[in-house]
From TrEMBL:
Residues 375-497 form the Aminoacyl-tRNA synthetase class I anticodon-binding domain. Residues 10-332 form the Glutamyl/glutaminyl-tRNA synthetase class Ib catalytic domain. Monomer. This is Glutamate--tRNA ligase. Pfam families: Anticodon_2, tRNA-synt_1c. Its EC number is 6.1.1.17. A motif ('KMSKS' region) lies at residues 261-265. The gene is gltX. One of its GO terms (cellular component) is cytosol.
Amino acid sequence: MSENSTVKKNVRVRYAPSPTGFLHIGNAQSALFNYLFARHYHGTMVLRIEDTDVKRNVPHGEDSQIDNLHWLGIDWDEGPDKPNPKYAPYHQTERQDLYHRYITQLLDQGLAYKDYATEDELTTMRDQQRAAGEAPHYDGRWYGRSVADQQAAEARGLKPSIRLHLPANHEYAWDDIIKGHVAFNSDNMGGDFIIEKSNGMPTYNFAVVIDDYLMDITDVLRGDDHIANTPKQIAVYEALGLKHPNFGHITLIYNPKTRKKLSKRDKETLQFISQYKNQGYLSEAIFNFIAFLGWSPEGEDELFSREELIERYDPARMSKSPAYFDQSKLDWINAAYIKRLDLDDMTDRVLELVDEGQTDVAKQVKALQLPDLRTLTSQVCKIYQTEIHQLSEIMDKVLFYVTILQEPLDYDQLRQFDRTATLAVLTAFRKHVQALPVDVATPDFKKMIQTVSQETGVTGRNLYFPLNVAFTGDHSAPQIDEVLRLFANSTIIELLTKAIAHV
């Protein structure tokens, strides 16, 4: 364990997703750095579900988050599935009584107050402020109002929200784990902010404080887009007389072309972890890649196992600069991990994708219902393992070779070679395949190619390229003798006959 691992004791961090859909790569980044932080310091990682925004929650959203985190290789010590009685429950919707207790405390101390302003009134207020060249802010119109005013508002059927009162010209500051010293002035925070909505649900900035405090969270690592929330949360901590945890704001992920934060409108970049899984990226490659989005180790190495990343992780090396999503780097990392796979493991992973059927090609391969799909997939993996960047490419190849007689192969490439030599090679090869005994299950195609070369006197590219085109549709093909083992002899003969006819 590296030297800085001994500095922090009793570390407790949390990843707190909302069950509003799939695991986004930005959320996965936050989860991963919390995981590395907890594991590096032998601390505790908590999974907490922030589900108070009921309208945005989706069916099975929580299960999707958990499944994708597990696939990515991130686990936790406490959560809905691993409750610690001291800290449970782990769903915010089950913690309403806890929030209300602290809301009542702030109201009783005069540090929070009821606000009966309607949405129309607030809209008018903000419009007037903009017209006057002011930044929109709550003007405190209900702070200090009498009980009689409140009763009159309620008599009109108005339900109040609860706002925290901010002291004037007060500094909320912290030493950020990543960004260094950060400070906000209370006069520039948009005025007194809501801590409980009119429907009785706590706002994010209030509930998260109570949860982090009651769960003994020591360090909060989250995306840089939360930095404006932090002073509000510190304001809640101070109003309640509580010590706040350490905060660290992780750099966001940016599109290198637009130089803007990666958004769901970036169609050229996959946004969700499930999409990477379905396309055949390896979980260990994605883990490795995301770890470099906002952090870098000492040295030049770029490929690390999960255990190595835990060992090498150092929050002091977290980046303040934007993390740019480099698709070519991701593909390179994934290809490197694919090359390391055991052939059986690689085959298993491809077949799992086929069985799940989440992409068009997976559905097509599954629909073939091939009795020998595992054998065929293993053979294709062996041929292309060193050349592909995603496992989906293996599914593409399997589908291609199974349906090759219906594929429009580009025989025009045969025109690049001497016509007489090409015909001699293709014709001689067809003759040898036609002469094969019926009981020969696996012909020695490498030896057969050598025999054809001796008979025709054709060698090198003039020998191999026409064969490549005939059996793959591309003059550049790997291990053509291995490719030939994917076909029945009758298919080989038919492919040769098509190529000869074209020449």
